[in-house]
Amino acid sequence: MKRILVWFFILSFSAVAARAQDDATQQQINKLNGQVQDLLDAQAVQAKRTTALEREISELRDKSSQPGAMDTANADDLKKLADQVQEIDKKRQEDRELILKEIGKLGKVGGGSTASRKSPPSVSTTPAENPTPAGGAQKGFYYEIKSGNTLSAIAKEYCDQGHKVTVKQILDANPGLDSKSLIVGQKIFIPAPAQ
């Protein structure tokens, strides 16, 4: 009977040990299931991120393929543009100098008419009177239009000689005078300032 009892004891101990081993195995299985679930959740999050990035890349490709999408300038583009502007400005200066030379040549060929435009008009300071529509006489000077004269140049020359007069005053003293079409040899009245 001792033998049976020993076998029974071994069997019960084995059953308890097996049950303890089953519990430990079940805990390990549960732990592994939790870790697998965590990995599956992390994979789902990564899949969502990957999908979002793919969509963003697709949108960027669509935007970059549209006309005008690449209308941005970098530092090299700006430097090239600045160089081109400087080159254009240099050519403009050269053209200006060439035009001035050509105008000078034309002035020499045309008998010095350019020089007469640049020189101030010679003004008469001999007092004269101009009858006004109101019946009174206005004091001032008569001036004969020469080639290249303008009313502003004539007024400036009289002002330089101490007789302050404006273009408006000249036009008012000469009814019907057109400042844009002065006739060479035409005499106009330059009013003297009121004293």
Structural description of this entry:
By secondary structure, the chain is mainly α. It has 3 domains: 1-69; 73-111; 120-191, LysM domain (Membrane-bound Lytic Murein Transglycosylase D, Chain A). 63% of the residues lie in helices and 9% in strands. It is built from 5 helices and 3 strands, in the order αααββααβ. The protein has a 3-stranded antiparallel beta sheet with strand order 1-2-3. A hairpin with a 5-residue loop joins strand 1 and strand 2. It is rod-shaped and about 165 Å long. The termini are far apart.
In terms of topology, how is this protein built?
Blueprint: H1 2-65, H2 75-109, H3 113-118, E1 128-131, E2 137-144, H4 151-160, H5 167-173, E3 187-191
Antiparallel strand pairs: 1-2, 2-3
Structural domain count: 3
Assess the beta-strand content as a share of residues: 5-15%
| CATH superfamily caption of the largest domain | LysM domain
Biggest sheet character? 3 strands, antiparallel
- Please provide the ordered H/E string of secondary-structure elements: HHHEEHHE
Backbone shape:
rod-shaped
**Number of E-type strands:** 3
CATH class label of the largest domain: Alpha Beta
Ranges where pLDDT stays below 50 over 5 or more residues in a row are 112-120
Secondary-structure-derived class: mainly alpha
Please give the share of residues in helix: 55-70%
Do you know the CATH architecture of the largest domain? Answer: Roll
Taking all residues together, what is the mean pLDDT?
81
The number of helices is 5
**Rg result:** 53 Å
Write out the strand line-up for the largest beta sheet, numbering strands in chain order: 1-2-3
C-alpha end-to-end distance: 160 Å
